[in-house]
Amino acid sequence: MIIAYITDLHLDEANAAELGANTRRNWERIYDDLQQHEVDMIVLGGDIGEGEAMPWFFNHLRPYAWHVTPGNHDIRGQIRNWYRNRNMESQNAIYFSVDMEGHRLIFLDSAPDMVETEQLQWLRTQVQTELPLVVFIHHPVLPVDTWVDKQFPLKNRGAVKNVLKSQGGDVTIFCGHYHLEHTQQDGTITQHICPSAAFNILEDPDQFKAEAKAACYQLITIEEGEVSRQVIRLTV
Ligand SMILES: [Fe+2]
Asked: Whole-model pTM?
């Protein structure tokens, strides 16, 4: 199966505009590009944007199966107006899991810059499987030596990492939030950070520097025993 992973759209947000991003145009570029691929599912990595952009944006998703992992800019109640999923585990946070293609896909909600206690407890039950794990979460779990990691990390990333490691099998994390492309491995965990659809931040440990030259997203292929990915950069 092919998943289009789209994160950090920041639609209509003033910050993105100040950095030179035309966020609606970027989404349209990505949406047009999606038509070139046989996409089975869309996963929104969070930080979708302002409420006034929601009807316009979510109407594009009507033909697709899609899921979402809320980010720090998202309001859970707002997303729930558009997201329908009977298997959600909570009335508040948006998280669930599904087994497909020989993997367990786990979708987490880190909107408050952390995975809260109840959700973490649920995660402990979900990692108890023979299946390799594919985890979607807005915030990176493994640290990256860059400015944005120091400013806005997942507050309880150590606890989340320990739960994911406790299973002992392969774990692939797909995340966003840092607005850069980055891949790293820590034992059984491989983490892929996907660049932003709106603007991207240079990998610099000391300062914030951003550019809005491309609308980026990622194609993830999951087949029996294999997870692979490819970042698509659309020049704007
Ligand atoms: Fe974020």
From this structure: 0.98
